[in-house]
Write a structure and sequence with these properties.
Carbamate kinase, alpha/beta, homodimer, eight-stranded mixed β-sheet, VC0802-like, globular
Chain lengths: 403, 403
């Protein structure tokens, strides 16, 4: 098999850990596989570099930030290749440019346009282990670009797609994807398999195992991705296309997000174009709105509620003060202490009554639902933040997700 | 004027210092000059990276070492360009590759083969200050290379040659080149001018102001190089071709080197090929021999003395033990506490009696001379290490070098 292995910042956080990673790679090689390695910067390094830049200015030029940030991965690829060579396994470190990772030129959040991968193929042919710097690429104009936080995952997945690898192993500090947060529910179960779509929903709901763009990319090119621990043994969780097994399971996981706040505009004149006049300025201020709910109109007035990241509440309040005047709404109110609790599962498509079961489970615990939003494979409810753990535990039990 | 400015590791050792460097660059710009900037890694960074690699193995692969080490300069170019932009002066950071610094592929000590410099010219045309990573280049095979310690000086000088710059200013932590070490002679005088050749002799004699290859490169392409302090005001020392003024000055400087040891092989059979049998194995062990002196032969036996770096004494002793058996010499002795004191000056070519004056000055102080070596513009004497300061002061006075 050809396996792409990606090691995150914690896995390569010290020289000792880098040596451990080298041993893991060697043991995969000794099982008879070809290995292509992708690594992140040592943990803390990217933050250190960002704060150096911020000591100079709060708005550093992005082209130069990319040269700055891309230096972190160069250190780890070099050290890992040095370790592999010292253990008797020929290895070569490559930068994003050297393996032909060509991106657009949107600095600090570039998108991969193509990967040539010639030098990787060459190295493999020579029996050399290629060790590739994640997170970075090069623009058509030959400038260094970076792919945004978590971009090393994307490098690994995109390389796996380009090389037609059999597997893309993402080594991280968790053992895989769980039915819910094990810190809240002690019998949370590690999933052996999960569909790309479920993973996308989980990631966008705050389960920080894999960067969302990586999952999308994997789904698009059908890359088999496995998430597993760099520190513990185990088979991790495999991300694949849906299969029949998966559809039998109605709900795969319960997740929550406590980083949102709710804004309600009261007494909004109910006429065409009003939503655009509210959410246009919000979007222009780079505030990402998650859920939006509009109540039925009474006497041509309606209420509109939406959620924004808690960190953007202040900015949102300032905006709202001028927006309600502009649209002639009565007032607005903000509730910060909310949580979004969600259930996710591709089986929902073929099973009915899932939403009802969620609502009644919460009701049985005396938890009031403030907002509801649904997608094909996900139902989210906004509740009072203080009930988060209670709700997650009750739902995990109700859908029989435990061990 | 087009000025290349190079800032060393101490000058960019902290964010505060980087901002200071930005201000110096801006003030040169505001005087109406075009500026091209070359920077080293922050002081201590290269050592930090080397020791990370050495924690893994004592013989790290050199190709990977270059990827590792080249990361240091990327951080400083980015931070300096960020600082310049934040002060309102458009600047762009460039890696060695981006400005087309093509080297051979001798990793960790590559030689520059050519510089295209297109992006530098482009930037200058657009009024953008190019900030270039020193010390690094790229091989024909597209691998990252580094130029060896002090390589940033070479980057600056080579760029100045390629761009036909009017001046190459090397900012360092000393105010220029002095007639001798100011720590030993309090009235040591800063030289306003020095010839390339004198500088070469001084550098190879241990005055660590400029890397030797940079001086050679500057001499070859006639680059006007100025050495000056990044921290103090002043005009520094200008390196140029010889002129008449210089020839009037018999001696420009007195220098010393206490890092040598003397080895004497006694009773060497005086026959052809003997020197090769001694110095062949020494060279093969990468020990750099500085002075070699062979006494006149007595009864077909001769004595050979030579100096080696003090750090290589142990290795040399081991070698000598087998060499004296091999060549049938009587014995060898090692003297570690020696110093080499030298006087340098292009004026020696046209003045006689300089050597005599040196010898008698040392004799007047009661200092015994153990070895003598001379070149066209330099005379070196090996003496007992304990007389170093005394000898340097006496010579400095005798040749009237003080203020």
């Amino acid at each position: 098999m050809l396996i792409v292995q990606k090691y995150g910042g914690t896995s390569v956080g010290s020289v000792e850990r880098i040596k451990n990673v080298a041993r893991k790679i060697i043991s995969t090689r000794n099982e008879g596989h070809d290995v292509v390695v992708v690594v992140s910067a040592m943990s803390g390094e990217t933050d250190r570099l960002v704060s150096l830049a911020h000591e100079i200015t709060h708005v550093p030029v992005e082209r130069e930030m990319d040269i700055l940030l891309s230096s972190g991965e160069r250190v780890t690829v070099a050290l890992l290749a040095i370790a592999l060579n010292s253990m008797g396994y020929p290895a070569k470190a490559f930068t994003g440019r050297q393996v032909g990772i060509v991106t657009d030129s949107v600095h600090t959040k570039a998108r991969i346009e193509r990967i040539s991968g010639e030098r990787v193929q060459e190295a493999l042919k020579e029996g050399v282990i290629p060790v590739i710097a994640g997170f970075q690429g090069i623009s058509e104009g030959s400038d260094v670009t970076t792919l945004g936080r978590g971009g090393s995952d994307l490098t690994a997945v995109a390389l796996a797609a380009a090389l037609k690898a059999d597997l893309c192993d993402i080594y991280t500090d968790v053992e895989g994807v769980f039915t819910t947060d094990p810190n809240i529910v002690s019998d949370a179960k590690k999933l052996d398999k999960i569909s790309y779509e479920e993973m996308l929903e989980l990631a966008s709901l705050g389960a920080k195992v894999l960067q969302n763009r990586s999952v999308e990319y994997a789904a698009k090119y059908g890359v088999k991705v496995r998430v597993l621990s760099a520190f513990a043994e185990g088979n991790g969780t495999l991300l694949t296309g849906e299969d029949e097994d998966m559809e039998k399971v109605v709900v795969s996981g319960v997740t929550y997000d406590r980083n949102q706040s709710k804004v309600t505009i009261i007494g909004v004149p109910d006429k065409p174009g009003i939503a655009a006049r509210i959410f246009g300025p919000v979007a222009a201020s780079s505030i990402i709105v998650d859920m939006i709910i509009q109540n039925v109109s009474q006497e041509s007035l309606t209420d509109i509620s939406f959620t924004v990241p808690r960190s953007d509440v202040k900015k949102t309040i300032t905006l709202m003060e001028s927006i309600i005047k502009d649209i002639g709404a009565r007032e607005f109110e903000v509730k910060e202490d909310i949580a979004k609790v969600s259930i996710v599962g591709v089986g929902m498509r073929s099973h009915s009554g899932v939403a009802l079961k969620m609502f009644s489970t919460l009701a049985d615990e005396g938890i009031n639902i403030m907002m509801i939003s649904t997608s094909e494979i996900k139902i989210s409810c906004v509740i009072d933040a203080k009930y988060t753990e209670l709700a997650v535990r009750a739902l995990h039990r109700a859908f029989e997700l435990g061990n």
